[in-house]
Amino acid sequence: MKEKIKGDPILSTENPKRVYDKVRAEWRFNAKLEGCSQETVNLPEEQETIDNRINRMFQAKEPDQQSNHSSDIMAPTDTTWKSQGLFTSEQVQILLRLFQSMINGSPISKPKITSTLEEDINGRPLLQKFTLAQIVNRLKYERKQKREKQNKGSK
Asked: How far apart are CA 99 and CA 119, in angstroms?
């Protein structure tokens, strides 16, 4: 390989082992292509106009007609009472009281949150009204707020 690339102005500066590996890789790639069928696919020559595309997107459908196109426009998802996630000030105070250690920096543990809320008479409604992920997010938010307050106070 050294002798073959010695006279080439581009390859003479390259490592002969790398050139050899590259040539072998090309041979393998071409052999794989020859093993595959060489059929060419003819793509459609006609193109859809913008007007046709818009009409197709917004064409009226029968109410009972279902479409299986993933590009159909869908109405916004209805929010449920669990997904609204608005904590009242009383609910925030309950969380602050029950999870002060987590807000101060101890690990936020979902099993600990669940057991604490189930044991507290004021915490049970929170567990029914909000998802565990919403409560965890609120605790993380409160922790962040506390840290920002502390950082402002220390400056």
From this structure: 13
